[in-house]
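Hi R.,

As promised on Friday, here is the backbone we talked about, encoded as structure tokens. Could you run it through your design pipeline when you get a chance and send me back a sequence?
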């Protein structure tokens, strides 16, 4: 299956009016997720990334299984001023490429943090905190090194790619809106790490790498995280 990179320019005020409404706490990532799903349904680009915002619009890049013409034909409603696509090339084994990734580097497990009674069972925590709790307060933990290791593990799954180098270009703690599943859905505000990583990787298995590109990296890929943007290696 060919993966297409999709370019969409959306009407930002209209998204907020339609999606946020009375939910004033909704963040832009959540609003864009809901908007893309509302417009394109199951064909919505996933993962995606908001790469540019202005007063009136936002530029979105994302990966999808179908080209722009199919998305436009099947769209449930209008919601963009620009919609274009191009097929992603299949990279050969051994090819080195640059990348940029907005990631949510977390780990799931039974973490022994400072408040275990308030958070029993399996939890999702910042990979940096998980490592700090694992080694204890006597050892210094480098956030960039932890996130680099986290990314390397995920690129190597299935033999997709080898991480050559990665820099942490930006980090912040982000409060995000999520809705629970089931009959009684409710909105919950969560705090998650938001990291921008860039560097070089080497493709080791073209098929596995194409699948990794299409699926994205890490969790919360439906909410603006996990899209590997590729560039020619310097």
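Update: got your reply. Pasting your designed sequence below so it's all in one thread:
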């Amino acid at each position: 299956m060919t993966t297409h990179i999709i370019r969409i320019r959306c009407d930002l005020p209209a998204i907020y009016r339609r999606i946020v409404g009375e939910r004033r706490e909704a963040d832009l990532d959540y609003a864009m997720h809901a908007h893309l799903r509302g417009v394109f349904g199951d064909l919505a680009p996933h993962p995606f990334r908001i790469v540019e915002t202005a007063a009136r619009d936002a530029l979105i890049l994302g990966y999808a299984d179908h080209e722009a013409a199919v998305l436009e034909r099947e769209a449930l409603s209008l919601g963009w001023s620009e919609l274009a696509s191009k097929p992603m090339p299949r990279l050969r084994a051994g090819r080195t490429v640059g990348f940029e990734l907005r990631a949510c580097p977390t780990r799931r497990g039974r973490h022994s943090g400072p408040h275990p009674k308030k958070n029993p069972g399996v939890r999702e925590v910042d990979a940096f905190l998980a490592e700090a709790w694992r080694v204890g307060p006597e050892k210094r933990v480098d956030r960039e090194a932890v996130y680099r290791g986290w990314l390397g593990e995920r690129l190597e799954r299935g033999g997709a790619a080898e991480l050559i180098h990665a820099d942490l270009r930006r980090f912040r703690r982000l409060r995000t809106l999520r809705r629970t599943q089931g009959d009684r859905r409710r909105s919950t505000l969560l705090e998650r790490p938001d990291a921008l990583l860039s560097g070089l990787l080497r493709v080791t298995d073209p098929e596995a790498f194409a699948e990794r590109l299409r699926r994205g990296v890490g969790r919360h890929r439906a909410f603006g995280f996990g899209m590997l943007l590729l560039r020619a290696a310097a």
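One thing I noticed while checking it: The CA atoms of residues 113 and 119 lie 9 Å apart.

Thanks again,
M.
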